[in-house]
Design brief:
Blueprint: H1 16-23, E1 49-53, E2 59-63, H2 67-70, E3 76-80, E4 82-84, E5 88-93, E6 98-108, E7 111-117, E8 127-131, E9 144-152, E10 159-164, H3 171-174, E11 179-180, E12 204-207, H4 219-227, E13 231-237, E14 260-264, H5 266-277, E15 282-285, H6 287-298, E16 306-310, E17 325-329, H7 336-345, H8 347-359, E18 370-373
Parallel strand pairs: 1-18, 3-13, 3-15, 4-12, 15-17
Antiparallel strand pairs: 1-2, 5-6, 5-8, 5-11, 6-7, 7-10, 8-9, 9-10, 13-14, 14-16, 17-18
Helix pairs in contact: 7-8
Amino acid sequence: MNSFPKTIQSEPSSGRGREDKERSLSSYDYELPPSAIAQNPVIPRDSAKLLVVDSPHTHCHRIFSDLPQLLKPGDLLIMNDTRVIPARLHGRKTSGAAVEVLLLEEKQYNTWLALVKPGKRLQKGARIVFAREAGEAGEAQYVSISATVLEVNEATGGRLLRFDLPNGVSLLQILDSFGEIPLPPYITDSQAEDDQYQTVYAQNAGAIAAPTAGLHFTPELLQKLAEKGINSAFITLHVGVGTFRPVEVEDVTTHQMHGEWIDVSAATVEQIRATKARGGRVIAVGTTAVRALEGAAALSGQLEPFCGKTQLFIYPGYQWRVVDGLITNFHLPRSSLMMLVSALIGRQRLLDLYTEAIANAYRFYSFGDAMLILPEARVTHP
């Protein structure tokens, strides 16, 4: 799988023309053959292809299990330990009509913001009944549960649903019996098991989509990294539906980023500070880890522990505060995720690498292959 680095052409690193293109939504478009969209994960997880971006002008092709050879002792990997919840539920209105619900966020205890379809006739006061999946006797106490529409949410077009449960019973406690793991809309023909859409270190339940760069890690690979002195620390960012929503304004700098809940602990902040103090590098595993770290740092100008929401939007010209390198998958055209990666290595460079990946039969999106951007490959800004 290895190859010699390949020189590629990048557009000029400065100039008004480049700045205008980086602001333009249409400049983040590319054509992807439908066959390149991965429908199933590879087995084992760490056998995925890895496109290594190792300098401003070179890259090479490896496999993900080579990661211990590509990082240095003293580096620190920051991983997102969120866990995907079975957020898609199938219910029926009192009229008998079928309703599909995608839970987005718990606003209050057992009261959730959700997308519903069809939603036009589901107005305030409507009731939805959900029957639990068949299982072994005694598996769940509840054969069915119901929810009431409290209001229409104008921002998302969704509904605020109050789940009618006895005191002391949380929807999250019984959700496994009623819901299913929601795969992204571009995965239409998958045989993946639920645990294949969770990272091996998933712990804190709350996401409706996986932090997909982390899907490539296996326990064995994590052990090899640790044995080499490559450390790990965790943040939590509960991935929301905004991850899949395209940017819709032509001037990307006017895009309003969706908010996502993050938790950057004091222990993780201390590990990052200690790593940088001894000359180590902070490598974010996925764009969610980037958003959590940079979002926490943006509040005061330097990284501090933080628990709450971030709406940070990272695009070319961004001044990095924490992250030195990145492990990431290949992203949707015109997405905020493409803009984030472009801020690290440049928009044209990223598009050139995507062209290279397509030519080399890389698999794209959530179950696809990965890219490692080393600190030496970063663009610099004045």
